[in-house]
Design a protein that fits this description.
The chain is an alpha/beta fold. The protein folds into two domains: 2-198, 2-enoyl-CoA Hydratase, Chain A, domain 1, CATH 3.90.226.10; 203-249, Orthogonal Bundle (Lyase 2-enoyl-coa Hydratase, Chain  A, domain 2), CATH 1.10.12. The chain has helices at 26-41, 77-93, 110-116, 144-152, 154-163, 169-174, 187-198, 203-216, 221-236, 239-249, and strands spanning 2-7, 10-15, 47-52, 56-58, 99-103, 106-108, 120-124, 128-130, 166-168, 180-182. Strand 1 and strand 2 (10-15) form a beta hairpin. Helix 1 packs parallel to helix 2 and helix 4 (144-152) crosses helix 5. The structure holds ligand LHQ. Residues 20-21, 23, 59-64, 66, 77, 80-81, 85, 106, 108-110, 130, 132-133, 136, 138, 141 line the site of ligand LHQ.
């Protein structure tokens, strides 16, 4: 259910159950867990690109796994989040290098929030985002209740989460929910070239940038200044900082090792 490759410092994961719009069943979850672990442990990887095959990006949980017969006991969805979705979202969010999502088509339910948990989201112009949860009596999960208000503000987060309307990629871009939308034909090439570029950049520094930005929504301005001090101290000890400054002074292109 997944395609996985590593090349030029870029790990590429493609959700691959196009017949059900790449929705997550048990097998895909298990494979995703393995692959994210492999990505994290592969020291050659300096960027992750996530995308989907076929006409959709991901329709969230495979609902055919989930239908409840009348009178039967309801499955514990909390357990499903605890065991499957939450570890996946934490792994994605905490990757110590940039994560790029190329949203090739509809991203619904958990699929939308998995995409939005990536650092940079590019979407095909024909793609869309749907917080489908409310239509089946659920709440946005996979980090959605944190990610949405952070990205688009509370008014839009509530509208998206409670109405469950389809948000076209262009509107998502106008709202600042994603980085950019691009023509459908250009999506994969643009996303890959961005991932390749990022994989040549100061990876350790980029990981520290993520940490600082993620902490910002929980911190006061003063706390954030303290965090910047601590993280900049680490960044300033990196090989890549040394290389960046030397290259600037010597008027040459830097070669970053990611350390
Ligand atoms: C699907 C699905 C799908 C199975 C399309 N499952 N087959 C976490 C914790 C534990 C449990 C509960 O959930 C969660 C998190 C969640 O993600 S909850 C939200 C789950 N997702 C949804 O509610 C979205 C359901 N899908 C849709 O609303 C539509 O498919 C969208 C709007 C995404 C796309 O619509 P269309 O472009 O019209 O495509 P379609 O509906 O015809 O879908 C194509 C095929 O894919 C179709 O199968 P078929 O055999 O008829 O061709 C669908 O049944 C199948 N499919 N989503 N989630």
């Amino acid at each position: 259910p997944l395609l996985y490759s590593v090349k030029d410092g870029v790990a590429c994961i493609t959700l691959n159950r196009p017949e059900s719009l790449n929705s997550f069943n048990t097998e895909m979850h298990a494979e995703m867990r393995k692959v994210l672990k492999a990505v994290r442990q592969d020291s050659s990887v300096r960027a992750l690109l996530l995308t989907g095959s076929g006409r959709g990006f991901c329709a969230g949980q495979d609902l055919s796994d989930r239908s409840v017969a009348p009178g039967a006991e309801a499955p514990d969805l909390g357990e499903s989040l605890e065991k499957r979705y939450n570890p996946m979202l934490r792994a994605l969010k905490d990757m110590p290098f940039p994560t790029i999502c190329a949203v090739n088509g509809v991203a619904a339910g958990a699929g939308a929030n998995i995409a939005l948990a990536c650092d940079i989201v590019l979407a095909a112009r024909s793609a869309s985002f749907i917080q489908a949860f409310c239509k089946i009596g659920l709440i946005p999960d996979s980090g959605g209740t944190w990610t949405l208000p952070n990205l688009v503000g509370m008014a839009r987060a509530k509208g998206l989460a409670m109405l469950g309307d389809k948000l076209p990629a262009e509107t998502a871009e106008q709202w600042g929910m994603i980085w950019r939308c691009v023509d459908d034909e250009a999506l994969q090439e643009e996303a890959m070239s961005m991932a390749r570029h990022l994989a040549t950049q100061p990876t350790h520094g980029l990981a520290l940038i993520k940490r600082a930005l993620h902490a910002s929504s929980d911190n006061s301005f003063n706390e954030q200044l303290d965090l910047e001090r601590d993280l900049q101290r680490l960044a300033g000890r990196s090989e890549d900082y040394r290389e960046g400054v030397s290259a600037f002074m010597e008027k040459r292109r830097p070669t970053f090792k990611g350390e």
